[in-house]
Write a structure and sequence with these properties.
Elements lengths: L13 H12 L4 E5 L2 E5 L4 H16 L7 E5 L2 E3 L7 E2 L3 E5 L6 E3 L2 E2 L4 E7 L4 H14 L4 E6 L4 E8 L4 E7 L4 E3 L9 E3 H8 L6
Parallel strand pairs: 4-8, 9-10
Antiparallel strand pairs: 1-2, 3-6, 4-5, 6-9, 7-8, 10-11, 11-12, 13-14
Helix pairs in contact: 2-4
């Protein structure tokens, strides 16, 4: 179950204002506020986007982009760790009524998120450490990481307020069936996903 809605006090938003300035000065950057810290990520490479496109296919084939849920890239997730905190997962599976859960700054309450997914880039430590804690605290039920750096796919489930109780890494050659809580059966081929995400620099 995801975190319940929490009232956010109104007032000055110095970090949000700075985040907006950073985005205006650096087109294509993803700017997030996690744990009261601004994180700015440069535009990803082509294979990063290629992986995301391929990953959407099994979710859509399972009917998860429809009446009851929606599959969305780059949607803001409000984090309960701070008044201005929010993250922008690469891909999210959300309830179809997510529009009713907008908090502010185009970020939505965790309660409508079924899954978040990140594809690592140069800032892979953020996805593997910082965001694990952030998404667990927000009680997002499933967190999937396509770890291009270490050639693994991670599935994290059963969040508490500090971490995910279950964290299973998968290697090429394995198939991953995601939890039934998503609303349909989704199976991922680790080798295929990682092959698509491989950049020339890593070959």
């Amino acid at each position: 179950m995801s975190a319940a809605a929490v009232e956010r006090p109104h007032g000055d938003r110095p970090l949000t204002s700075e985040a907006i300035r950073l985005m205006e000065r650096n087109p294509g950057y993803r700017v997030e506020i996690i744990g009261g810290q601004i994180l700015a990520s440069p535009p990803p490479d082509g294979p990063h986007g290629d992986v995301l496109t391929d990953l959407m296919a099994p979710f859509m084939a399972a009917g998860l982009h429809g009446v009851e849920s929606r599959l969305i890239q780059g949607i803001g997730l409000w984090l309960p760790s701070g008044v201005e905190d929010y993250a922008i997962p690469d891909l999210s599976l959300v309830d179809a009524d997510y529009r009713d859960h907008c908090v502010e700054n185009n970020a939505y309450e965790p309660i409508c998120f079924r899954l978040v997914l990140e594809v690592t880039s140069s800032n892979y430590r953020t996805d593997l450490r910082t965001k694990v804690a952030a998404y667990a605290e927000a009680k997002v039920p499933v967190y999937v990481i396509v770890d291009r750096k270490h050639q693994r796919l991670h599935v994290l489930t059963d969040p508490n307020e500090v971490k995910y109780e279950n964290h299973r890494p998968y290697a090429p050659g394995e198939l991953v069936t995601l939890p039934d809580s998503l609303g349909a059966k989704v199976t991922l081929d680790v080798a295929e996903i990682l092959a698509v995400g491989r950049s020339k620099a890593s070959e």
